[in-house]
Design goal:
30% of the residues are buried. The strands form three sheets. A 16-stranded antiparallel beta sheet has the order 4-5-6-7-8-9-10-11-12-13-14-17-18-19-20-21. The protein has a three-stranded mixed beta sheet with strand order 1-3-2, with helices on one face. Helix content is 9%, strand content 48%. The chain has five helices and 21 strands. The protein is mainly β. Strand 6 and strand 7 form a beta hairpin. About 3% of the residues have low confidence. It is globular.
Amino acid sequence: KYDEIPITVDNINLKFVTDGPKDQKSIGRTNEAFVQKIFARTKGAETVSQLFRSLQEGTMALASLGMYKTVDFELKECKKPLTTDLLIKLKEKGPFYGNAGVGMSSTRREPMMKIEGLLRNVFGNAEILKGAFSYGVNQTGSFDLTFAKPKSFSSGNPLEPPYGTLAAAAHYNGGTLFRDSNFVEKSSGITLKAESDDKRHLLEYLGAWRDVLPHEASGINTNPEERKGPRLHSNSVLKASMPSLKSALRYTYTYDKTNHKLTPTEGAYVRCSTELAGLGGDVAFAKLEGCGRIHVPLNEHVSVGVGCFGGLLATVSGRDSGVPFFGVPSMINDRFFHRGFRDLRIRGLTAFGPTDDGDAIGGDAYFTLGGSLSFTPPVEVMEKNNIRFHIFANTGNLQLLSDGEGDLPSRVKKLISKEEIKSSVGIGLIAPSPVGRIEINVVTPVLAQSEGLTCDIRWAVDSDFS
């Protein structure tokens, strides 16, 4: 067969192309050695089928970097028998890119204005230098500067291409308001990341200086040297108002086989993260969080989905403590706060989870379960844009384990007690957007223990949902 004809690659060369005349010489920024590493498997090909398979893999790998308008190749005649030279032809994108628009906050999961600037191919190996400024309703302004280097790791085999991405980022957050909790968190620090090519595995080091301040809109001076003021905040918020230094490692695994990231009708999604703090700094804890969803189509227009979220924050006690975990209270800015579509789609954090004098103070453990029936009416504009209606039900709870009334076993029982669990049902419209999944819902609480929740028409934007 033609596919089994023996062939080998002798040399791999690089050529830059432009939109100008064909005979015009073009000088690019990409290093030839980098391209040769991406197409390393072609040097190990022994047949035509193996060669074209490795060419396809290399072309897709270069195209996925976002550096090139086009990636093409040409097999050149070689004097050696059953041998060819490989010519990679690249048309590069411009070195600079800027963008302004609406994005999603990574901490509060809320829409915000973003201005981004990007420098491509900094040293010729597909590196990226990115700066971003963001401003939102609950954020006074933040700045991030990130340097990323794809294809950073080598297997040691010259016939295998490099893999993975390394990134380093510095960030400054001028203040994020936790409105229902009446405090502001300021932070600055660094993040180091290593990520797999398929985005399933992410390992991060997080080093950050954080400061919790009572919200100045309530009359408290947010100057760290002048924290004293009239009693307009809960004791929990005033007690939590202090700076801290966090040094932590976090690993995240993501599995996504859904047919659409924001309005899926088929497939499964799983994300799990583990964070260990205490590698220096003055906070020590283990934090686990995960979510999962399964979507099953019933027919062309109707789909059923079930999902869950869960998290546990375990503070590490000192050596003198009688218990290794939960012996000291957790810091308020490390706790879980329900928001977006994980808070039963009911407005107001103070209606879900621990509170102190009207301030939501977060929890150390939570879970939510959700189910939905979604459908698309036979309307062309809705079908083309993945806009759907859904009927849903949610239930869950959020509790403190390291602080509060009673001992640890009684707090755990409170988390899963049917007298404490709250639930809601509703119907609404869902639609994908550049900033996340948009929902407009009519929601009502169910069960007597959902006291404090009211029937509501609510809209929200998020990328996490159940």
